[in-house]
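Progress report, Aim 2. The chain analyzed during this reporting quarter is listed below.
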Amino acid sequence: MAEDVKPTRKNLMAIEDRIELSERGHDTLEQKRDGLIMEFMDILDQAQDVREDLNANYDVAQRKLNMARAMEGDVAVRGAAAALKEHPEITTQSKNIMGVVVPQIESSKVRKSLDERGYGLLGSSARIDEAADAYEELLETIILAAEVETAMKKMLKEIETTKRRVNALEFKLLPDLYENQEYIEQKLEEQEREEIFRMKKIKAKKEEAEKAEREADHEGRYIGLGHTGHQRPEDLRQHRVGALRGVMIVQRCRIALRAFCGFLVHPRKHGRDVVTPRHRRLRL
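Predicted structure tokens for the chain:
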């Protein structure tokens, strides 16, 4: 299930690799299935033809055997069959069809001449020879039918197995991988949005702290001049103008005091001849 997967980028990369591998495997299995179906159809057509030939040859051989038994008798027919010295030989090989190993049957010594059958010309008749020829042809058809039927069964079994694998990939594995991929991508996007929101909040708090610090420094300067942080800018400007006026008045008073003291020390410069004791006391 998607909830059992940890939403990490490593798992996302691993799932993407599995999806890519599964898609390639799915395509390959589909191609194999289609190729097996085409080969199976060819073998099926061949099997149908062989089965028809087998039925026809069996009917002919059975009819000729019945004719020989009716004309020559069961004893003559059984004696001709028992006189056979060399039996047919069958060898099997294998061939590969779209990854499926099927048997390939080869036979030898199935068809024989009159000399190879073991019975003499005087002890048999044409009816027995015709029956022997019919059964030899029937045996060749049976061998070919066995090869074709076995190959068809193996091909059909492999087709069913391949179809189950394709369906498992298409309807089970790939949908689960797509679901896990979508789940991880959604979780990662959600984490990214949360991280962006968190960074914005941190930035906003930092800006507010810097702004509050600047305001505190600005207010501290005015507090050093005797102001409080609750005064309005107009009051601060008026207070500054009053302070400047007070400084100018103090400076003027100092200038006037210096001038007055100089008058007491040097009265001639100011149109007086003597300095009275009163003036000295004022100087002091």
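The two ends are 106 Å apart (CA to CA). Residues 232-284 form one domain. These observations will guide the mutagenesis work planned for the next reporting period.
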